[in-house]
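Quick one, tokens below. Sequence please?
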């Protein structure tokens, strides 16, 4: 039974229609509320039936505004995450609207807010429409963007108007798009989305057209969160504005495009790497934020264990050879590469890099952007680089056999080559090169260091608590390090206490920032002979584990958890 039976009882809907709409909600993976509203049923009737079914009081916010001092009781991020809205205060009681009463986490958050503010609360059921509208009342990203949207609608009327028809009004035929978009409120919408992203420490902005709306998501600490939803018909204007900033083709909507632009915020230069992607409902835009003023981290600040740092420094001191970092997209490989370049002597050595794209500008390095569309690839660029009398070459990524062969050839002829490769582990680097068609007798004398990395969440002290390690966790940790030789176990911290996540409304994930976990091994004569036999992953692992004491990324995470740098829950993500 569901609340739709109460709508039938009150003669708002008949049984046959109810059956059809319930099935439609299942087939389209939509909420029953949305399906009913799409069919013209009133939100008030739906809310009344739901409230009666759930034995709650309904609350109709409608066009009423919620004072900002009331909204302050629950932060916007928490309201959005838990789907709760503070409505009013009466007789010392905070009235709170909730859209999903079955959300236990929302009730826990309210209990926390209640105790923190020394105030009791009363729950009311609100509609999805009222919830979404109320979010727009916050004086943050949502409020500013909705104000700009209101001005956009006043200026351009129907969102369905073709933007190209408006552009004709501009007397300057040389740059018609720029003039119109600069004058339109959509400029403020884009600027506001970007400004809040910069202030919030966001790494990527996703602007995605969906069936009935445009979703703007921010990636913070590796996780995407919806920050605001906009009317679906504003997507063309948003994309046009971003394309102009990024110097992309406005009339090309069928193929992906790449671009970039720079802006200044609080005196800092921020670079944006922009990508468009055609989807069924329109063009999706992703903007990677690169804060130049944060600069490149020094090698000593990269969260490496002391023996890992020593190993990496030894490799960088070698006059020639190949250093490879593996890991998926977004695992921090490029950051590590830049830190390695910072460690090198760029004054007396000729250092060149091939990148796609150039994320940070570094003094003393000749950086070159590859352009595959005109035939300037990593492989062709590497050939040219070798004619530039280099000492050290950084290649953004080894993607194919040709690039791998050229990188190894450069390492064999007296150059130090740094690059990345896509494998799941450091151990997988050698088999991956062999799969690409590289002969083992070329890999053995050139590869001097193989490493892999991932990013994990750093513990937010205010949203975690220190607890004693349970027997089950202690058993798991001991089992993980069971095959590590005793002489290397001295580097493992005492298994005593750890941090676990204790979420707060301000930080429901218990995470603030990210740090890297690593695994790595260096080449020696014995490992060279093993590689010559076309080894399996297990054969390489058994040697570097027994003879070198290599710790895996998961074990590095366990060590960082025992040092209370990350919540122990992050170990399970590896």
């Amino acid at each position: 039974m569901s609340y739709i039976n109460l709508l039938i009882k009150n003669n708002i809907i008949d049984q046959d229609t109810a059956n059809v709409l319930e099935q439609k909600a299942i087939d389209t993976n939509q909420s029953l509320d949305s399906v009913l509203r799409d069919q013209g049923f009133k939100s008030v009737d739906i809310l009344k039936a739901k409230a009666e079914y759930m034995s709650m009081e309904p609350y109709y916010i409608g066009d009423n505004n919620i004072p900002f001092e009331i909204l302050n009781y629950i932060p916007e991020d928490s309201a959005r995450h838990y789907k709760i809205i503070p409505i009013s205060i009466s007789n010392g009681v905070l009235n709170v609207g909730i859209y999903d009463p079955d959300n236990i986490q929302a009730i826990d958050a309210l209990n926390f807010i209640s105790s923190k503010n020394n105030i009791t609360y009363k729950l009311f059921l609100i509609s999805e429409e009222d919830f979404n509208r109320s979010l727009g009342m916050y004086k943050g990203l949502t409020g500013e963007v909705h104000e700009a949207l209101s001005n956009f609608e006043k200026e351009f009327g129907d969102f369905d108007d073709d933007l190209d028809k408006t552009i004709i009004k501009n007397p300057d035929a040389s740059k018609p798009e720029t003039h119109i978009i600069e004058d339109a409120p959509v400029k403020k919408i884009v600027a506001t989305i970007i400004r809040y992203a910069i202030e919030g420490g966001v790494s990527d902005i996703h602007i995605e057209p969906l069936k009935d709306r445009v979703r703007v998501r921010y990636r913070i600490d590796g996780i995407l969160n919806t920050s605001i939803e906009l009317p679906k018909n504003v997507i063309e204007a948003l994309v046009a504005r971003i394309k102009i900033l990024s110097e992309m083709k406005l009339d090309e909507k069928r193929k992906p495009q790449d671009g970039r632009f720079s802006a200044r915020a609080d005196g800092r230069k921020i670079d944006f790497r922009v990508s468009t992607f055609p989807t069924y409902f329109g063009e999706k835009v992703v903007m990677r934020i690169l804060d130049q003023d944060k600069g490149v981290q020094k090698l000593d600040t990269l969260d490496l264990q002391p023996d890992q740092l020593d190993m990496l420094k030894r490799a960088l001191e070698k006059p020639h050879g190949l250093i490879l970092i593996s890991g998926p997209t977004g695992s921090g490989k490029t950051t590590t590469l830049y830190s390695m370049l910072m460690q090198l002597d760029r004054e007396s050595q000729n250092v060149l890099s091939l990148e796609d794209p150039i994320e940070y500008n570094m003094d003393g390095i000749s950086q070159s952007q590859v352009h595959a569309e005109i035939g300037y690839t990593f492989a062709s660029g590497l050939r040219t680089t070798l004619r530039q009398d280099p000492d050290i070459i950084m290649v953004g990524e080894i993607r194919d056999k040709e690039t791998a062969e050229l990188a190894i050839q450069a390492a064999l002829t007296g150059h130090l080559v740094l690059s990345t490769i896509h494998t799941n582990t450091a151990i997988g680097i050698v088999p991956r090169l062999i799969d690409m068609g590289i002969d083992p007798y070329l890999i053995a004398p050139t590869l001097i260091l193989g490493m892999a990395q991932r990013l994990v969440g750093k513990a937010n002290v205010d949203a975690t608590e220190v607890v004693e390690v349970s027997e089950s966790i202690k058993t798991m940790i001991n089992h993980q390090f069971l095959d590590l030789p005793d002489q290397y176990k001295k580097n493992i911290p005492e298994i005593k206490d750890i941090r676990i996540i204790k979420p707060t409304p301000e930080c429901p994930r218990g995470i603030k920032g990210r740090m890297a976990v690593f695994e790595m091994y260096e080449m020696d004569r014995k490992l060279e002979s093993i590689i010559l036999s076309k080894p399996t992953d297990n054969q390489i692992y058994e040697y570097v584990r027994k003879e070198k004491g290599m710790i895996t990324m998961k074990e590095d995470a366990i060590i960082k958890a025992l040092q209370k740098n990350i919540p122990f829950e992050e170990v399970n993500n590896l």
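Confidence is low (pLDDT under 50) at residues 156-183. The chain has 23 helices and 18 strands.
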